[in-house]
Amino acid sequence: MSTSASPLADRIRALAEEAVADTDLFVVGVEVRGFEGSRVVEVLVDSPGVADAKALTAVSRSLGFVLETEDVVKGRYRLDVSTPGADQPLVDARQYAKHVGRPLAVTFERAQDEVVTVQGELVAADSETLTLDGETAPIPLDAVRDARVVLPW
Predict the structure, then answer these.
(1) In sequence order, which residues have a C-beta less than 8 Å from that of residue 63 and are 6 or more positions away?
(2) Three-state SS string across 60-84, please?
(3) Interval 52-93: pLDDT, tens
(4) Helix 53-69 crosses helix 7-19 at what angle (to 10 degrees)?
(5) Which residues contact 24 (CB under 8 A, 6 or more apart)?
(6) Are 90 and 96 in contact (CB under 8 A)?
(7) How far apart are CA 82 and CA 128, in angstroms?
(8) N- or C-end of the chain: fewer Cβ atoms within 10 A?
(9) Pairing state of beta strands 103-111 and 77-82?
(10) CA–CA dist 143, 134 (Å, integer)
(11) CB of 84 within 8 A of CB of 59?
């Protein structure tokens, strides 16, 4: 999922950020698909722990109310607020902490023009780096191009 690819998605993301402001949830992606009158607005949120259905429902209602009140999305649309699926990439530094102890596949720029993919257990993560078992040095988050939890199937 793109993190925002249009002025409409950017506006919805800003409103979604406001909707989660008083929670432990954070927005990791917004995508608007379709055409005026039949759009799908998908908002992905995550949390340091478990994002329960009650929290997701509250965000969906709050965001939906603002979208309707301000007539942000013209015509009919469907709003989906959910957490990222297991196959979604990790796109926000705050997502890594809850995956410590799990295997990750990380594609990153190791040196200028050298892009590598490594796999290993996530040993530690902070706002600037992540450390994988088997890697000799922490990986700067700004060098990461793609990071995903390695699924057991």
Answers:
(1) 12, 15, 16, 19, 43, 79, 81
(2) HHHHHHHHHHCCCCCCCEEEEEECC
(3) 899 999 999 999 999 999 999 999 999 999 999 888 999 999
(4) 130
(5) 47, 48, 49
(6) yes
(7) 26
(8) C
(9) unpaired
(10) 18
(11) no
The single-letter code of the amino acid at 25 is L
- pLDDT average, residue stretch 43-55: 92
Rounded Cα gap, residues 67 and 79, in angstroms: 10
Rg of the chain (C-alpha set): 17
For residue 87, give the DSSP letter.
Answer: T
Q: What is the pLDDT of residues 83-132, one digit of tens each?
A: 998 889 999 999 999 999 999 999 999 888 899 999 999 999 999 999 99
Give residue for tokens 């995508």: 31
CA dihedral 101, 105, 107, 109 (to 10 degrees): 40
Q: Checking phi first, is residue 4 left (phi over 0); if not, alpha (psi -120 to 50) or beta?
A: left
Cβ atoms of residues 125 and 100 within 8 Å: yes
How open is the CA angle 130-117-120, to the nearest 5 degrees?
50
